[in-house]
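Human: We require from you a protein record containing the residue sequence and its fold in token form, and nothing else.

Assistant:
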Amino acid sequence: MSRLQNVDERGGLRQIADRQLRAIARDSIEPRGARLLHPLGLVLTAVVVVVVAAWAGHEFRFGEALISGLLLALISYALFVWGLNQTMPVWPWFVAA
């Protein structure tokens, strides 16, 4: 029996997500979430970061993570774009083009 068969699918995926999140925390100069900002825009980046962070938890529910990500995206858009008038990509390159 191989090592991969001993680890159930969610446990294996959770380990991968845990390694990725630790790498993001280690990267203090430019976090990997910020690297997503230019190609994906503010809205999708907020949703992706929240879903990936929630995925690392033990009680992951996609619907709840998606709603939280959308709420964070809405608040971020209102704060940074409307409130502070900052220029940043809001939508992905394929939508904004």
